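pinging the channel bc i need a second pair of eyes. not urgent but kinda urgent?? the chain im working w is below, pasted from the shared doc
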Amino acid sequence: MSIGRPKRKRWAFLAYIAGDNDLSDNGLADISELCEVGSSDQVHAAVQIDTQGEHDGSIRYEISGKDFENEAHRIVIQRLAESNTGDPKVLRNFLAWGLKRYPADKTLVVIWGHGSGFRSVRRDVAVDDFGTSLNLPQISAAFAGAGVTGRKKIALLGFDACLMNMIEIAHHLAPQVEVLVGSQQTEPGNGWPYDKVLATMLQDPTPPALGKAIVKEYMKSYQRAHEPDVTHSAIDLSQVDRAMAALSRLGKALVPCVASQRNAIRAARDDTQSFEDAPDYLDLIHFCSLIGAKIPKVRPQAEALKSAVKQSLLAGSSYGTGVQHANGLSFWFPTSPQKYAEFRPKYRNLRMGSTQSGWVNLLDAFY
């Protein structure tokens, strides 16, 4: 029996689960969460998962609607050969398949797995322990190869991964994505509450409303579990270019201060909220407050940046004393000249052109 192409719906949920690592069981649990709700006549739901142990290769599952016993099921659509989730061709092929098979007015794409922001040697995001991982230029290229353009954007991109909500990452993906949802902090292993996410999608929210709801449900799930020090935020990427330009202006304003105010700049950096396993990822709003107080000369640029970041935040939430100054967006301020030299090329590859060069100029002058 052949399966016809599903009809166009209001929303599609597509999850790329990079579980060929120690998170394998969590990926399977998240599929079970999706099955607690199921798809509907207005919402598609599908995943591609690569795991350790349960089967050879990768599997593409469709999440069914509820049956007569009020149960939804994962239905095998395709069994694939063993793949490397860190290969951008694998992500591209999944998205091209999913966008064609599950046509929708709006699509939520989740990139799931280990994450480290932009500057890991091999563990940026979607890590395969037996392969590689994806960096941000590879992700944007995979999107483009799957037909994602400025005129046909992903409505909401979720990183169910650690340390991914950085202004540089948001800015890099802004040409292809409307709303970004993720965490400044490392994420607990259970990740997103997918039953709540899919249940919200059944209500046909706008992309900003869905982003806000995901943040709310994520935070509620970990507060109930008494999980310490969690963060989550939703970013309106149409506002991020303005915030990046403001970061550039702050960097340019700080360059002349380096010679006489180096210690003040370093103190602001050291006192700013940072995150687990990432002392060089700092909360942007908190830094603006501190640098403006320590160097009054740049306070106008710091306040302008703070305002622009707040304008881009649809929702930003934190829970726990270890992240009490987390507001929703991080940025990169490396902790040593060696780290800056090591990752400066990768940083410049994050769509950091001439209009975004002011912060790079500051880091060049500082180190």
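so The longest strand covers residues 9-19. and DSSP finds twelve helices and twelve strands in the chain. — does that match what u expected or am i reading it wrong
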